[in-house]
Design a protein that fits this description.
Layout lengths: L7 H18 L18 H6 L7 H36 L19 H15 L9 H15 L2 H8 L5 H18 L8 H17 L12 H4 L7 H12 L3 H10 L5 H25 L10 H22 L9 H10 L23 E11 L9 E8 L4 E3 L3 E2 L4 E10 L6 E7 L10 E8 L10 E4 L12 E8 L5 E10 L8 E11 L2 E7 L8 E4 L4 E4 L11 E7 L2 E7 L2 H15 L26 H10 L3 H5 L7 H17 L11 H14 L3 H17 L6 H15 L12 H23 L1 H4 L8 H12 L10 H27 L1 H7 L2 H25 L2 H5 L5 H23 L9 H11 L9 H34 L6 H4 L30 H7 L4 H20 L4 H35 L11 H20 L6 H44 L7 H14 L9 H21 L3 H24 L8 H20 L4 H4 L2 H20 L18
Antiparallel strand pairs: 1-5, 1-9, 2-3, 2-4, 2-6, 6-7, 8-9, 10-11, 10-16, 11-12, 12-13, 14-15, 15-16
Helix pairs in contact: 1-3, 3-10, 3-19, 4-5, 5-7, 7-8, 10-18, 11-16, 12-13, 12-15, 18-19, 18-20, 20-21, 20-22, 21-22, 21-24, 22-24, 22-25, 25-27, 25-29, 27-29, 27-30, 30-31, 31-34, 31-35, 34-35, 34-36, 35-36, 35-37, 36-37, 37-39, 37-40, 39-41, 40-41, 40-43, 41-43
């Protein structure tokens, strides 16, 4: 500690020693660290017993280290105490800074325990252990948030560094759900904003749990309010914690420094400023300057010192003596008239006039009672009047003479420091002609501000011949002490310019402004002083008694060049109070000490009684505080002290309960600002120290706001380059060298943060930090503040950082996935699985970069390709592992297609990565695989058609199995390799309905499924290169066309062969195999529309249309052919029936024989109706085959065409048969059979939906007319021959 009486050399040496020790102590941590005692060997005691008595070198070393540690701790403690004295004075009487109210409010930080609790609460919600009701979409969002964010190691590291708040967690969740909710479909009556609000409310409920998660324990009480405007007591407590000051030490410093005495603090400030001016003058005389970058700055430096002190004097001068007091207007007037007061030493300064020190007093006169009143009858009315001479008169209430008591108070205002107060007692006059009441007595008082304020009895002056010789009045006179009246009382005085006669006078020490004081002597009833003396430039001190002066016992004087004024008081205590008050007023650096208390501190002045001051002084001395309190601030290196203070404050701030990111609280900013202004700490030094501490904390893992770094760096850069951000134009060599060092460190730090942006700014937290970091980097790279750096240079640096970031991100990703171990020892299948998992992680990293770090593109809108290059570099590292895994796969292995699909789906949706370097590399790898796969599948499908149709049973699939996907794909024995099952990433769109209605063959359905699955597989690849994608689509469509054409032709041939094998009798029932073939052709036509239509450009579409129409025409013609073949077959059955009826033609032998036989037999037995068996058999044939076709053929349109042609062909055959017998009359049996066949056929086909136009054709009309005529003929010749069979619609027939 510096001793005020030590020499300058000793002071400088001691200060340097303290600085070194303090730097060692405050190098890291929130409190000074101590070296722990070295561990002792447990065998040392036994070993020492057998050795010589001299200690070993290790023992000596341990003792020396312990002694050095204790000494260092003692020096640190003393330094902290001295620093706290300076800080306490800044807090007690600030006159430069105010607590800022516009700082951003900081959020409460999360710690490890809170993060763990938060994980448990979200896990409980996902397990359904809470009462919160939520839908599946919200649960999925919470699950994603929990897995990706809450469980992330990067978030845990950020929480550990103290840079994460509850608000950050909520913002990340909000961004996540905003993206999800936007992708949800619109719901009528429910806006997406409502959904967002509801989800956030549920998130808050999960976050809080059963109790309020944000509640902090009571021990955080101080830090909990640190973001608010703090009182002086709270500021004291905060800096006690910062500097490790005990409560008792604070109380001792508080009392000894008189921190609650504004006059003492203002006087201390004036002394400090005067000392700083003297140091500046000494520096100018001795030419001892700091080393500046130019010699011209040395004189400028002195001017800056003077200007800074003058500014502080102006700030102090601007403070009112007492805010709100009646003298406030006076102070403003004096500041404008006496501006020369700000320049100490000006010989031409304006002198005060007597009117400038006029005071204003308030008097309270309280009349209690009158005693000894005998001359007035008891029932007479008496009252009192009171007045301050020169002012108004007041009167009490009336009272009876027997009880003259009032308790009335009168308030007066006067400008007389020595007023005259008159109180009179009156009784009402009873005479008729009396004009005035009778005066019974009076008392005249001469109060001062030091007079007793308690009620006293005063003897009244009574008129002559009055009986009230012992008349007394009890009253109290209270005269206040104006705030700018610092002391008053009676003194003897003798001066050379004023008070030239030694006599006792009434003096008042008046403070006109913060820098203007005057000693004034007043007479009674005068508002202006008789004489006054300004105290500026005077030095007050105790003196020995002057034997030649009569009056006064205790002497002191005020000395100025060319003038000496001697004062004397009647007692020692009065002298001490006067000297203390004048010491504060003069602003002198020397502190007067009375001879009787040479070793004691100044007693506390003002209104405090004298017996308390020695208590404080003794206590301060007893605890060793005197040297800290009496130390001269001007002899300290405040730049070093402030560096220590700012370091300790920042450590404390980073360890409090707020996520401050390096920003000080308003109270801390206020104290640091006040300290810098009051003790002359240069702004550049302050920000350089701040930058150094922030960079150090950031390098150690703390989260620091880059905007804060930017602010301090910009200030220092502006100062070093001569832009005077704070009005200081001098730049020292040390400042410039430190700035260059800080600039290099900051550049390295920023480049490292950009290279580790995923870990320094996880999930985009703190918000906007990455963008601010990029902006700061651009500023740091500037050569000076005026010349902007070329964009290409910034781009080059950022590109280099992002290249490093790609390597860092991928390396950590592979370490997380443990890919190296898997790639070295795994099987090919395992390698592919690991690479696929790694691809998912890479895509997730790129998506997170886009979602949470997209602000980088905003900051570098000029170079959007930088992040794209970063992603390409990142993917190029992945491609090494991917290529290695793919090379290890066996030939013709198709398990790697999902890897292409995963990567391609991610890349093709990215504007910057689509068809980029990695994307093209991916395509180059998979193009041969896709082509090879399609070639093999084409060969497989072609051979499956050939083999399958040769061995086809033509049974409908529905009869084989009810689930098509369970049917194994047919093997192709002619191919030398085993084809895998078709990789179908998307189920064919027609598959579901086909399961319920399909009657096609196994070969055809397998063909259509393979073609559709192959096309869907290629479609799901979403090949990014348009030309190759179009080529694949065209090839698959052509393949489908060729395959379907081959299937149709083979089915047509099989249909004809199968149909020829069927008989032509009425026993014919259309086989299900023919229906299956029919269905195959129907399905082929449907599948052609889907599998063979190419979506392409207009020019190509027209060319493709010609080719596609051929397959359509082929299918249509084939369907027509098989319908014709089938109709021909069933019509041939009718022809066989008609050929049987031909045997009954008129004139044939068989006809006569049959007729005779039937007639002969009819006499003995019941003979069946002739021709009915034949007609019924044919009708049964028609009906059953109609039902078969209806049930087993899928296409209604073709069924209707078939029935139309069948009906038309049947009627045509009957018509031709009848036309061949125009000249013959039909036999009765022929007529009955034909009538029944025609009528039943007509009705059955009408029920099957054949149109009226077809049913009632000319052919049918011809047949109907012929049969009607034949029926009429028979009815004439043989009335009972038809037995009720008729062509009429109204008759009843047998079924």
């Amino acid at each position: 500690m510096l001793d005020p009486s030590s020499s300058e050399e000793e002071s400088d040496e001691l200060l340097d020693e303290e600085r070194r020790d303090a730097l060692l102590a405050a190098g890291g941590g929130s409190s000074p660290r101590s070296l722990p005692p070295p561990p002792r060997d447990p065998r040392g005691r036994e070993g020492g017993a057998g050795r010589a008595a001299s200690p070993s070198p290790s023992v000596l070393s341990e003792g020396r280290e312990e002694q050095e540690r204790l000494q260092r701790e003692e020096r640190e403690k003393r330094l902290r105490l001295q620093l706290y004295v300076f800080i306490a004075r800044c807090i007690a009487h600030p006159f430069n800074a105010k607590q800022p109210t516009d700082m951003a409010r900081r959020q409460q930080k999360l710690n490890k325990q809170q993060l763990q609790t938060l994980k448990e609460r979200f896990q409980a919600f996902l397990n359904g252990e809470t009462q919160i009701v939520a839908d599946e979409a919200f649960c999925n969002a919470v699950r994603s948030y929990y897995e990706v964010f809450l469980k992330s190691d990067r978030v845990a590291r950020m929480v550990h560094s103290g840079g994460c708040s509850a608000n950050d967690f909520r913002d990340v969740f909000k961004k996540n759900i905003e993206k999800r909710v936007r992708s949800l479909p619109e719901i009528d009556g429910l806006s997406k904003e409502t959904v967002l609000s509801s989800w956030l409310a549920k998130y808050d409920a999960i976050y809080r749990g059963e109790e309020d998660f944000c509640k902090q324990p009571n021990r955080m009480a101080l830090s909990a309010v640190s973001e608010l405007i703090l009182s002086k007591e709270q500021l004291y407590e905060m800096f006690q914690q910062i500097l490790g000051i005990k409560k008792l030490e604070h109380q001792l410093i508080y009392n000894a420094c008189q921190l609650d005495n504004a006059d003492e603090q203002a006087a201390q400030i004036r002394r400090e400023l005067d000392g700083r001016l003297q140091l500046a003058e000494q520096m100018a005389r001795e030419r001892k300057f700091p080393k500046f970058i130019t010699r011209e700055m040395e004189n400028m430096y002195i001017e800056e010192l003077r200007s800074s002190v003058n500014l502080l004097m102006a700030n102090l001068e601007s403070l009112p003596v007492s805010k709100g007091g009646p003298e406030f207007k006076l102070q403003k007037l004096k500041r404008s008239q006496n501006s020369a007061f700000l320049d100490i030493g000006d010989e031409n300064e304006v002198q005060l006039s007597k009117s400038d020190v006029v005071l204003s007093f308030t008097l309270e006169i309280v009349i209690m009672e009158v005693q000894g009143l005998k001359s007035v009858a008891p029932n007479r009315i008496v009252y009192c009047t009171m007045e301050v001479e020169g002012g108004e008169k007041l009167q009490t209430d009336q009272a009876e003479a027997s009880r003259p008591q009032w308790g009335t108070q009168g308030d007066f205002t006067t400008t007389h420091p020595r007023p005259v107060v008159k109180v009179k007692l009156f009784t009402e006059s009873t005479g008729v002609l009396a004009l005035e009441d009778k005066e019974l007595g009076r008392v005249v008082l001469y109060p001062t501000s030091n007079s007793s304020k308690s009620p006293d009895l005063h003897k009244m002056i009574v008129p002559k011949n009055s009986q009230d010789s012992d008349l007394k009045i009890k009253l109290a006179v209270r005269m206040d002490k104006p705030p700018h009246m610092k002391h008053c009382g009676y003194l003897y005085a003798l001066g050379q310019k004023v008070w030239k006669r030694w006599k006792k006078r009434y003096f008042v020490l008046v403070q006109v402004s913060q820098y203007t004081f005057a000693m004034c002597s007043y007479r009674e009833k005068k508002s202006e002083p008789q004489e006054l003396m300004q105290l500026e430039g005077y030095t007050v001190d105790y003196t020995a008694p002057h034997t030649g002066l009569q009056g006064g016992r205790m002497f002191f004087n005020a000395v100025k060049e060319g003038d000496t004024v001697i004062f004397a008081s009647d007692d020692e205590q009065d002298r001490i109070l006067w000297v203390q008050a004048m010491y504060r007023a003069t602003g002198q650096s020397y502190k007067p000490v009375p001879a009787s208390q040479a070793q004691k501190m100044n007693p506390k002045g003002g209104d405090v009684s004298a017996d308390i001051s020695p208590l404080y002084t003794d206590r301060g001395q007893k605890h060793g505080m005197e040297e800290f309190i009496s130390a001269n601030p001007c002899k300290f290196d405040h730049a070093f002290l402030f560096q220590l203070l700012q370091r300790q404050t920042l450590d404390h701030r980073l360890n409090d309960s707020y996520s401050c990111l390096g920003w000080f609280s308003p109270g801390q900013v206020f104290v640091l600002d006040e300290y810098c202004a009051r003790y002359g700490v240069r702004g550049c030094h302050r920000h350089l120290c701040y930058l150094n501490e922030l960079i150090e904390h950031s390098e150690n893992g703390s989260v620091i706001d880059p905007t804060l770094l930017h602010y301090s760096f910009a200030f220092c850069a502006s100062h070093v380059h001569g832009n005077r951000p704070d009005g200081i134009g001098t730049v020292s060599v040390e400042e410039k060298e430190r700035f260059e060092e800080i600039k290099d460190r900051l550049s390295s730090l920023l480049e490292n943060q950009i290279s580790h942006f995923r870990y320094c700014f996880p999930f985009g937290r703190p918000e906007g930090a990455l963008k601010a970091t990029l902006s700061l980097l651009e500023r740091v790279l500037m050569k000076d503040i005026a010349t902007p750096i070329p964009a290409e240079e910034v781009k080059k640096v950022v590109r280099k950082c992002l290249e490093k970031a790609a390597l860092i991100n991928y390396t950590r990703l592979t370490e997380y996935a443990k890919i190296e171990e898997a790639m070295n020892q795994a099987t090919p299948a395992r390698k592919l699985e690991e690479v696929l998992h790694l691809a998912e992680l890479c895509i997730e990293v790129l998506q997170q970069n886009e979602e949470h770090h997209s602000e980088g593109r905003e900051a570098f809108a000029w170079w959007p390709e930088l992040l794209a290059e970063h992603a390409e570099k990142f993917l190029s590292l992945y491609s090494v592992d991917m290529d290695s895994a793919l090379e290890a796969q066996p030939q013709d292995s198709w398990d790697s297609f999902p890897l292409f699909q995963l990567l391609n789906n991610s890349l093709r949706n990215d504007t910057f990565l689509c068809n980029g370097k990695f994307h093209k590399h991916l395509q180059e790898i998979f193009v041969p695989m896709v082509i090879r796969y399609i070639d093999l599948m084409e060969s497989s499908i072609a051979q499956s058609i050939h083999r399958g149709l040769e061995q086809e049973s033509w049974q409908p699939v529905k009869s084989i199995t009810n689930s098509l996907p369970n049917v194994a794909l047919p093997k192709v024995p002619s191919l030398p390799l085993n084809l895998p099952q078709m990789p179908s990433f998307t189920t064919p769109t027609w598959m579901t309905s086909m399961y319920e209605s399909t009657n096609g063959s196994a070969t055809s359905e397998d063909l259509f499924w393979k073609l559709d699955a192959l096309q869907m597989f290629v479609f799901d690849l979403h090949w990014p290169e348009p030309e190759f994608a179009h080529h694949l689509e065209q090839r698959l469509k052509l393949m489908a066309t060729d395959m379907i054409e081959a299937c149709v032709k083979r089915t047509r041939i099989a249909f004809e062969v199968k149909l020829q094998k069927t008989n032509k009798s009425t026993d014919l029932r259309i086989p299900s195999s023919l229906c299956t073939m029919f269905n195959v052709l129907v399905d082929a036509k449907k599948q052609t529309a889907k599998l063979c239509i190419l979506e392409g450009g207009q020019e190509f579409a027209s060319q493709w249309q010609q080719y596609h129409s051929k397959i359509d025409d082929l299918v249509e013609e084939t369907v027509k052919e098989i319908i014709s073949l089938l109709v021909s077959k069933v019509v041939s059955v009718l022809e066989g029936v008609l050929s049987k009826l031909s045997r009954y033609d008129e004139g044939t032998f068989f006809s006569s024989l049959v007729s005779f036989t039937v007639k002969a037999a009819a006499k003995y037995v019941d003979v069946p109706k002739p021709g009915m068996d034949l007609a019924d058999t044919y009708i049964m044939f028609v009906r059953q085959n109609q039902d078969i076709l209806r049930e087993k053929v899928n296409e209604e349109m073709y069924i209707e065409k078939l029935f139309d042609q069948w009906y038309s062909g049947s009627m045509k055959v009957i018509c031709m048969w009848l036309a061949d017998r125009l000249d013959l009359q039909l036999h009765i049996y022929q007529l009955k059979t034909l009538i029944k066949i025609v009528k039943k056929t007509y009705r059955d086909f009408r029920l099957q939906g054949v149109m009226e136009g077809t049913l009632n054709s000319k052919t049918y009309d011809t047949v109907h007319s012929r049969l009607t005529v034949e029926e009429a003929t028979v009815s004439v010749t043989d009335a009972g021959g038809l037995q009720g069979i008729t062509m009429k619609d109204s008759d009843e027939e047998e079924g």
